[in-house]
Amino acid sequence: MIVGVTGASGVVGRFVVAELQRQGARVRAWRREGTDCGGFEGEIEWIPGELGSRDGAKALVEGADAVVHGALAHEPGRYRGGEGADLEGFVRRNVQGSLELMLEARRAGVGRFVFLSSRAVYGDRRGEEVLSEEHCCLPDTHYGAAKRAVEAFVQSLGLGDGWQASALRATGVYGVSWPPRRSKWWGLARALLEGRPWDGPAGGTEVHGADLARAVWLLLTAEGTAGQLYNCSERHISTREVAALMQRQGGLSGPLPAAPAAPPRRVPDCTKIRALGLRFGGLSLLESTAGQLLALARQEGP
Fold first, then answer.
1. What is the DSSP secondary-structure string of the chain?
2. Which residues are CB-neighbours of 162 under 8 A, at least 6 positions away?
3. pLDDT 10s digits, 14-28
4. Higher pLDDT residue, 135 or 163?
5. Domains plus CATH for the chain?
6. Rounded to the nearest 10 degrees, what angle do helices 11-22 and 209-221 cross at?
7. pTM of the predicted protein model
8. Given Cys at both, which of 106, 128, 175, 245 links 209, Cβ 3.0 to 4.6 Å?
9. What is the residue-wise DSSP string for 156-219?
């Protein structure tokens, strides 16, 4: 099985590539100038390409059995607000570029297409509730609007044309990334080691990158996914909980970050992806990740 991957060198993309290789798939991925291709264990067929490049799209999908689309053209380090001062260019690259990629994949006979979307499609103007895929989407960021626009084409091509295209709405993603400094909670680990107070976010709904990657594999192999949307989030995780795990495993002491001031909001209901067979890693995976991050931060030194 040959799988084309966009966004392979990103935080999420690296987990996806690792799972695809674990499943025995051959991975072909886009590579832009300056892409960090280090940190991968298996062999990858790197080809030049990016959103908006028709030649890159054709090269990625030729002879492929499936495509996992996770690339996002945005201002460095920013997702929400990633359009910067060029909203038209942001839409052109991400919405039109994604549609061009999907159409090239269809023309090439690619059987499956998985789009990595975001909880941002729901927007933030909600009370305390659980979000299912049937909830009305009210994106209040251009990032969320772009993701929702691409989702609409996933639905029209899947539900209308019968193509096996689907979308996965992820929340925050944690796990040891490459380089480790890019990992969520790296700054927390450094603050604990240095005895500094934490002034970052109090927490959020999270999923481990490995679990997200397993969800991607399910969408590449399960039946009945054409045009379907799937939430992917394990639960709300507070920074205080992660800090407590790091302190216990690292023999550290000191004040913990403040607990969230309010109950979790906008928690995605993941019944639909669980029904396909996804089992999340749970507390043991969170504990092992916290320990790994702390150990790596300690190895880095002052």
1. -EEEEESTTSHHHHHHHHHHHHTT-EEEEEE-TT---TT--S-EEEEE--TT-HHHHHHHHTT-SEEEE-----STT-STTTTTT-HHHHHIIIIIHHHHHHHHHHHTT--EEEEEEEGGGG-S---S-EEPTTSPP---SHHHHHHHHHHHHHHIIIIIT--EEEEEEE-EEES--SSGGGSTTHHHHHHHHHTPPP-S--EEEEEEHHHHHHHHHHHHH-SS-TT-EEEE--EEEEHHHHHHHHHHHHT--SPPPPPPSS---SEEP-HHHHHTT----HHHHHHHHHHHHHHHHHHH--
2. 226
3. 999 999 999 999 999
4. 163
5. 2-173+208-232 (3.40.50.720), 174-206+235-266+281-300 (no CATH)
6. 50
7. 0.94
8. 175
9. IIIIIT--EEEEEEE-EEES--SSGGGSTTHHHHHHHHHTPPP-S--EEEEEEHHHHHHHHHHH
